[in-house]
Amino acid sequence: MAVLNEIxxxxxxxxxKIISENLPHLNSFSLGFWFNVGTRDENYSNNGISHFIExxxxxxxxxxxxxxxxxxxxxxxxxxxxxxxxEHTCYYTRGLSEHLPRTFSVLxxxxxxxxxxxxxVKREAGVIIDELHDVDDNPEELIFDKxxxxxxxxxxxxxxxxxxxxxxxxxxxxELQKYHQKRYSTGKMLIIxxxxxxxxxLVKLAEKHIxxxxxxxxxxxxxxxxxxxxDLILEKDFNQVHTIIGRSTAGINSKKRNRxxxxxxxxxxxxxxxxxxxxxxxxxxxxxxxxxxxxYHDVSSFGVYFSTNLxxxxxxxxxxFREFKKLQENKITEKELKKxxxxxxxxxxxxxxxxxxxxxxxxxxxxxxxxxxxxxxxLEDIDSVTTNDIMKLANEILRxxxxxxxxxKSNNNNMPRVA
Length: 419
Fold this sequence. Notes:
With 419 residues, this protein is α+β, with helices and mostly antiparallel strands. The chain has 2 domains: 7-209, Cytochrome Bc1 Complex, Chain A, domain 1; 232-410, CATH 3.30.830.10. It has 15 helices and 11 strands. The chain has helices spanning 49-56, 66-74, 100-112, 118-137, 139-151, 165-170, 173-183, 199-209, 257-268, 274-281, 313-329, 334-351, 355-369, 375-383, 387-397; strands at 7-11, 17-22, 28-35, 79-84, 89-96, 190-195, 232-236, 241-250, 288-295, 299-308, 404-410. It has a 6-stranded mixed beta sheet with strand order 1-2-6-3-5-4. A hairpin with a 4-residue loop joins strand 4 and strand 5. It is globular, with a radius of gyration of 23 Å. The N and C termini lie far apart (49 Å). Residues 414-419 have low confidence and may be disordered.
């Protein structure tokens, strides 16, 4: 089954990589400019600076105002956005193929020529602080930040992408400009497009719009060293009890990562998963229960998240541990494993119907492996997982004494005891 068209790669003299996947049956494209920089490259005194810079790059250049940046994309039916993660930053757009040159020019201008005006910095600080407060008021988002703060303690991965209010308020134009010049080098950049695109045209656009200077900065990231599991209970004005039980585990560069993904899917991804069936369908005591695997280069955060009312918190927690025990003591059937694999493979193939997802997949492959990992290779790896693998992983990963519990609960002191 051919699910990826031929992908072409060109490296410019300054180190910028141009990667394209041509899908000629489409009339549109997704284009991303990727930088290997994120929260993991910050420290506690500047935590949040990568995310702040992401916001500032939309505030205007010498050639374009913030309004003109948006209009040049949106007035032609396009879409422009960006995101910052703990290891990467991406500026991306979607548009009709006939508007690729215009779109490329806007992105290239944004990432190379931001103004960082002090008045814009102060104004945007207020916007980002509002965003921070939104996260603090949303327990479904806050708990994941708190969970990674605990399981990655001692490593920069423990810091939130958005940063702290203290840092956000103190950032100034000079500091942002200096960090941008040091970390956002075009010599380390990936330019990736999927859709109705011509590779030679992309290369010519890059040669025209991307500066020729090479990167001098070297990014060194501290290796993650796991620590003893510890729990965290945070009391705020919540109506529900929100809980994560989990731990750190193998990262993207580990051969075990896809096996753990199968285990996570079996446990709580989808309405046919064990936890969904045991807690929601059979008992109806929670609306939201899911497992997750958030992966970085050398480590992942793995766990189960659920929310429920005060009276049911202990019961749901005990069911989760009971399901963990079942997987440790009883080998799953080949039939169940086959269904889980089909769910994973089907989701992967459905994602490929979207050019932005295809662009993201190519980018992650290059960022983490410096090569294109084909979809066929991923599907074969999923198919190779055995029932013995799942039982072995369950006994390695789901040990109760190795798991961290993070609980967000009401501060009215009426919550039942947590086991």
